[in-house]
Model the fold of this input.
Amino acid sequence: MDINFSDADNQFRQEVKDYLENKYPKHVKEKQNNGEQLTKQDMIDYHKSLYEQGWAGYNWPVEYGGTGWSPTQIYIFQEELGYANTPTILPFGLNMVGPVIYTFGNEEQKKKFLPDILEFNTWWCQGYSEPGSGSDLASLKTKAVRDGDHYIVNGSKTWTTLAQNADWIFCLVRTETTQKKQEGISFLLIDMKTEGIEVKPIITIDGDHEVNSVFFTDVKVPAENLIGEEGKGWTYAKFLLAHERFGIAGVPNQKYSLKLLKERTKDFADDDLKKKIADYEIELLALEFTELRTLAALANGGHPGAESSIIKIKGTELQQRLTEMYVEAAGQYILPYEGPEGFNSNNTPASNVSDFSSQAVSRYLNFRKTSIYGGSNEIQKNIIAKAILGV
Amino acid sequence: MNLSYSDEQNMLREQVLKFCESDYTFDVREKIVESNYGHNPETWKQFADLGWLAVPFSEENGGFNFGPIELAVIFEEFGKALVAEPYLANVVMSGSVLESSSNELAKQTISKIIDGTTQVSVAFSEANNGYNFHDIETSIEDGKLNGVKTVVLNASFANSFLVYARNGDKPVIYLVDAKEAGVSVNSFSTVDGQNCGDVTFENVEVGESSIISHDNDASQAINAMLDLANLCICAEAVGGMTASYLKTVQYTKEREQFGQPISNFQVLQHKMVDMFMEAEVSKSLLFKAMLQLDGKDDEASKTISGLKAQIGKSSRQVGQAAVQLHGGMGVSDEMSIGHYLKRFTVIDALFGNRNYHLNNFSNL
Done:
């Protein structure tokens, strides 16, 4: 056993640092550090920058244009991105549908979709949840009926993150009504410009427009957009969810936020808060090493399985605790409500200090989602109970 | 970075596991605990024959030159089997203090610990200093040692004591024979089936020749001992937590109520998942701490404080949940499950509890 990084790893870390320092889009960094909302173009810009650097497929195999990095390199890469307070790499293309396509798709699909995912020419969103199917995802009802060389899709998806920006959506659809509900599900790629698709915003309790409802009325989808076999969609969905859970804990970003919180509260005469921060920091170290242990298992030929559920549960609980501490530290200064647009320049409260304003409470409210999405934490516990404890 | 145990380390684990399964069942342990304060001379001799008493000592002192990783491996397995033998007091604590000294007396004492012919306890804690272990009143004046040491682990069986005292303002560690005139031991059994004692030194004559360590080296030796001892009992707690959740899962599968195994109930399943997760994240932090200590990292002490604080919280949760899910059987002394909770409670109290280490972590 050895906790140290090799010289090659350290050299690699320096390379990532140099990129973030010199090549990462400056306007994105600035907005991020000022706590300003990023535009769609900003988001495209930083993804394109990663692509130009050759790092967009940071966890993809080389043969599909990925970096082929070792788990340790991926860890270092993500750690440095977090330390530099960069916005999250959107997972929908790169971490979700991309791996599904290169694992289960056919050659034509790989050729058609993978390069644009890497280059961020297409913005993807995820069509999983439905109004009647949340934790019981396999009960989904959105129907795809085969009609010649097309499917006709009817139904609706919900909580679709950033669907307002998306060019494509990957959907779980029901192609057959079977005894076992998992067996009639298929994995379908749908162009968002197709006639019959309607996107309606859902405003969340933090006041932001991040998620949407997506409605499908007689939407005609070419049959060639079916991934793998009809009726095998549930297998691909589970594969995707295990990948999604990995890295969901955002440990490096949490480390960055923790550092800020400690700096800002260092003169507070509040021993209770200090102890809470210490307790949180210890748990974060434990989580970080849990991720490392999982990475080490991956490097030895394992794959992310039920253990990634621990990381999801603990990681999201910690993210939420961190946002609570920010609210606690901000005290009454959270009251003047900033909203997603930010304060008007001639109407800014005297007490406004970026993170320690209503932004703290917006983030706190927004982060309630983390224990719900990606398979709610209660569902994760069911997974561990079944897969690891065998009960 | 490499987080795999070496073949040698895996073999050591196998060996300890095998011993615990065949020679140290819960029934055997209970007999030892009831009759003799947790210590069985025959078991101790087995430890010596297996070479376990030599694990952390340098080769020049006749040891295997193993470090925190191997000790953690042993303690994790000891934790699963609730081993009560005074390995911590002798091999880890006295071992650490003696190994840090270069004098001949220390070397001789080490060789006797290794062959199992002597037992030594570090006498450092006092009645009024809480966890401020360097704030001591036991002192040496005109060649005479006076003071009372409390909660000395394994005091009942110690043939000699490493006494942390001060000479004027300067810290010093003496090796004092338990039979020396003026030394008296008042032993107690502990709640978890081991033993400790108050050791009183009244005008005990000590000479220069019995000094093991002095000045800064002495206080450093105590600090290093505390770090290593904390790491070991945390590893023990991780083993205990693992055993607790596994035994609980097994029990709930067998126990039937309302016409079905109670493991079918989701409320119990989620509680067991929580136990599992606490054991796993604690183990992760244990990895970090033992690797840092092994690599003499500057952050090691801080991480060990973090680990001790985490273990204090996690092991309490796991221990209590294990008792809860065993129902009435959980509070019955004949079942092993409650004994884990007792050991966790003692582990938290030893060498700085959760609160102490949370503050420590925050201030380091």
In short: The radius of gyration of chain B is 21 Å.
